[in-house]
Automatic annotation (TrEMBL):
Keyword Flavoprotein: yes
Classification via CDD domains: alpha_hydroxyacid_oxid_FMN (cd02809)
Reaction it catalyzes: glycolate + O2 = glyoxylate + H2O2
Active-site residues, Swiss-Prot/TrEMBL: H254 (proton acceptor)
Keywords attached to this entry: Flavoprotein, FMN, Glycolate pathway, Oxidoreductase, Peroxisome, Photorespiration
Pathway(s) this gene product operates in, as recorded in its UniProt entry: Photosynthesis; photorespiration; glycine from 2-phosphoglycolate: step 2/3
UniProt organism field: Brassica cretica (Mustard)
Name assigned to this protein: (S)-2-hydroxy-acid oxidase
Amino acid sequence: MEITNVMEYEKIAKEKLPKLVYDYYASGAEDQWTLQENRNAFSRILFRPRILKDVSEIDVSTRVLGFNISMPIMVAPTAMQKMAHPDGELATARATSAAGTIMTLSTCATCSVDEVASTGPGIRFFQLYVYKDRNVVRQLAKRAEEAGFKAIALTVDTPRFGRREADIKNRFALPRDLTLKNFEGLDLGEIDKTNDSWLASYAASQVDQSLSWKDIKWLQSITSLPILLKGVLTAEDARIAVEYGAEGIIVSNHGARQLDYVPPTIMALEEVVKAVQGRIPVFLDGGVRRGTDIFKALALGASGVFVGRPTLFSLAADGEAGVRKMLQMLRDELELTMALSGCSSLREISRNHIKTDWDFPHYLPAKL
């Protein structure tokens, strides 16, 4: 079957993957209202295209934290990618590098930072959870830095894991033939290693619920890498993030897997952008499936977007080739949207190119 859009990869992945794995990737927290709204909210933003502009050449290249990348589309951290495909994060790393953009590796990956680095050159970030044993955090950050990773994306919305009812019903556990590779060889102290999924249990149970703003300073003291905060949804927290020296913000609701009934990320984006006043870049994570979605995020002030589930589903469908095609389709759709909106470069995209139903509540029907 000819794949014509990113959404089609999810259908293929659902057919190929065991139910337990598909549900782990696809589901959200509790009622999954935010999961649905992460997508639906994009349909409540309409375009105001400009005509008779020279769009014979379209440039989608940009810079993120000083690094030149081919497009404002990056790969978000997603856990345990070998459940989707035997090559797991290695395939994703190769595909992302070939696309000339950034991959973010999850702490809970099934390939280590060193294994990902061994796939060849590329700009890579490392997503980090802060654990109760700060020596473990120190070791994880040091490994990432030594492996050539360029930034840390610190997840800040997870003092406890959200209630994901599909995983409860399925009694989800990491398959026995897989392990969380970033923890191998670390000094984890005295822990019970008697069950097959002890590493996964450790990672879930040891997240530090006392994590607070002062710990941002501590993290800055143990690594020279720039730190982005992933999971900011409000202006108040965005302003504090700037005060504490964060070098970027990723507006994210953790794929709607944490607190249900938080706003979809595209609705929270502009509030955060206005709060930081251009002092640090703001990125969007959540719900992106089309080039039109990316344009809308850029028009609302994002410096780029991260894609998570599209990576997992395209990986499950066709390995490295699937991820490559997924990224290329999003790029092609973004270029088309820019041309039809009268923009030849990213810097020409502005708030004037869109209107939202929160600008004009009467303008759009309740449901499209």
